[in-house]
């Protein structure tokens, strides 16, 4: 009898060993991935890569571990006042956490920007009056004193708040929605055209786009514009112009002009905005990208990144050299760099660029067949033909850089733009 019991125990032990090992290995892998993504030390990240290699982790395993979210904690429901870093300072923002919040589920976020004289708290309260939120959204609203969101410091503040919210709560990064009223609506336009890949949809209200030439960047971002016809602070013509430009581009835009509304927050429209938000998820891996930038500070759009600009980008049109050879910059519009990139069938990638000397393409299984060679042309000239190798480091580095576990790219190509000769 004892003999048979020993045999049974031995068999149970043998069967259970691989399962236990697999579970421990997975936990170890997850911890290593989290350590890599949270590390500010290049040396530590190299050490983590070595440990992943020692663990015998395959690319697909690491990819799976990246997709597993951090262990978020439960949060008290209600409105929380929080702080986010802005350089050496900290700025205030308010976050509404619904009573139904659970950390093992990802949550959509509505990021709202107030107007001049407003506050983050006021924006959160305005949206909570909607009966359509049904406790399905986390509402986040920063407070910025002047309310002038289209400058460098408030831009960095908005991004910092979004990063902090991702750190504290289990955010669905494919369902982040940006809205704003008045100057906050100006900020919606400004931030969205600079960072289109962050948002699933945007809603500028009673606003004017400060960078109309960059609306081309919103190819993948649905837009819902609302403006009062009787607005004397921001004339309705500003909204009509943005809508007209987006319609001519063939983009996804809805325009609602309220005939009796002056310059005020459209409280009666929040229900339909939230319902509309629910219908959209971010397009993270579009096969076509159109991108224009007037500054080397903004080089990235989806899977494209400009790594070297021409000398005139960010200056003004009509730049010429005087008799001494110095650049003369008369009044005019900023010179922009542009990219039109398309992934076609059979792993063919076609790029048309201007104002660009070199660029990087981030690629992966969602965009191309990684088992086959890829052929890349720039301005009609073939610049690369060959197979790409997947890299754990590339994948981890792009996730870390973008603070986004959904943004998975397996490899990248460094490309020089051929001369016109």
What topology emerges from the helices and strands here?
Layout: H1 2-38, H2 42-54, H3 59-67, E1 78-86, E2 89-97, E3 107-113, H4 120-128, E4 138-142, H5 152-168, E5 171-181, H6 183-194, E6 201-205, E7 223-228, H7 236-249, E8 253-258, H8 270-278, E9 288-293, E10 300-301, E11 304-309, E12 320-321, E13 327-328, E14 337-344, E15 348-354, E16 356-363, E17 374-378, E18 381-386, H9 392-402, E19 411-416
Parallel strand pairs: 3-4, 3-5, 5-6, 6-7, 7-8, 15-17
Antiparallel strand pairs: 1-2, 2-4, 9-14, 10-11, 11-16, 12-13, 14-15, 16-19, 17-18
Helix pairs in contact: 1-2, 1-3, 1-9, 3-9
Domain Phospholipase/carboxylesterase/thioesterase: 165-275
Keywords: Hydrolase, Signal
Protein name: Phospholipase/carboxylesterase/thioesterase domain-containing protein
Structural features, described:
A hairpin with a 5-residue loop joins strand 12 (320-321) and strand 13 (327-328). This protein starts with a helix and ends in a 5-residue tail after the last strand. The chain contains nine helices and 19 strands. The protein has helices at residues 2-38, 42-54, 59-67, 120-128, 152-168, 183-194, 236-249, 270-278, 392-402; strands spanning 78-86, 89-97, 107-113, 138-142, 171-181, 201-205, 223-228, 253-258, 288-293, 300-301, 304-309, 320-321, 327-328, 337-344, 348-354, 356-363, 374-378, 381-386, 411-416. Strands 1-2-4-3-5-6-7-8 form an eight-stranded mixed β-sheet, with helices on both faces. A five-stranded mixed β-sheet has the order 9-14-15-17-18, with no helix packed on it. It folds into three domains: 2-67; 78-278, Alpha/Beta hydrolase fold, catalytic domain (Rossmann fold); 288-416, no CATH class. Helix 1 runs antiparallel to helix 2, helix 1 packs across helix 3 and helix 3 (59-67) runs parallel beside helix 9. The chain is α/β, with parallel strands linked by helices and 421 residues long. Residues 165-275 form the Phospholipase/carboxylesterase/thioesterase domain. This is Phospholipase/carboxylesterase/thioesterase domain-containing protein. Keywords: Hydrolase, Signal.
């Amino acid at each position: 009898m004892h003999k048979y019991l020993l045999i049974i125990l031995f068999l149970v032990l043998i069967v259970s060993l691989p399962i236990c090992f697999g579970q421990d290995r997975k936990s170890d892998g997850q911890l290593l991935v989290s350590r890599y993504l949270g590390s500010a030390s290049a040396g530590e990240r190299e050490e983590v890569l070595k440990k992943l290699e020692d663990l015998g982790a395959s690319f697909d395993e690491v990819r799976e571990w990246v997709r597993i979210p951090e262990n978020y904690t439960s949060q008290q429901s209600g409105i929380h006042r929080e702080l986010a870093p802005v350089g050496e300072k900290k700025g205030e923002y308010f976050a509404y956490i619904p009573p139904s919040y659970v950390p093992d589920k990802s949550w959509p976020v509505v990021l709202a920007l107030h107007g001049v004289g407003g506050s983050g708290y006021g924006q959160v309260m305005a949206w909570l009056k909607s009966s359509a939120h049904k406790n399905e959204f986390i509402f986040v609203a920063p407070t910025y004193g002047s309310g002038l969101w289209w400058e460098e410091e408030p831009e960095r503040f908005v991004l910092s708040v979004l990063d902090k919210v991702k750190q504290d709560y289990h955010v669905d990064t494919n369902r982040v929605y940006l809205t704003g009223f008045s100057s906050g609506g100006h900020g919606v336009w400004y931030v969205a055209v600079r960072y289109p890949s962050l948002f699933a949809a945007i809603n500028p209200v009673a606003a004017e786009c400060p960078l109309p030439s960059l609306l081309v960047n919103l190819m993948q971002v649905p837009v819902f514009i609302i403006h009062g016809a009787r607005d004397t602070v921001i004339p309705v013509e500003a909204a009509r112009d943005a809508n007209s430009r987006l319609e001519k581009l063939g983009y996804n835009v809805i325009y609602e002009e309220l005939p009796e509304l002056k310059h005020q927050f459209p409280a009666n429209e929040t229900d339909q905005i939230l319902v509309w938000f629910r219908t959209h998820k971010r397009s993270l891996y579009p096969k076509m990208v159109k991108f224009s930038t007037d500054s080397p500070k903004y080089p990235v759009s989806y899977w494209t990144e400009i790594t070297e600009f021409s000398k005139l980008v960010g200056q003004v049109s009509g730049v010429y050299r005087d008799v001494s050879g110095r650049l003369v910059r008369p009044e005019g519009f900023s010179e922009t760099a542009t990219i039109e990139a398309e992934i076609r069938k059979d792993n063919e990638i076609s790029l048309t660029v201007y104002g660009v000397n070199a660029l990087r393409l981030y690629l992966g299984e969602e965009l191309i067949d990684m088992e086959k060679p890829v052929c890349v042309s720039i301005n009609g000239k073939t610049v690369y033909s060959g197979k790409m190798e997947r890299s754990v480091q590339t994948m981890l580095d792009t996730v870390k850089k973008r603070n986004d576990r959904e943004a998975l790219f397996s490899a990248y190509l460094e490309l020089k733009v051929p001369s016109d000769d």
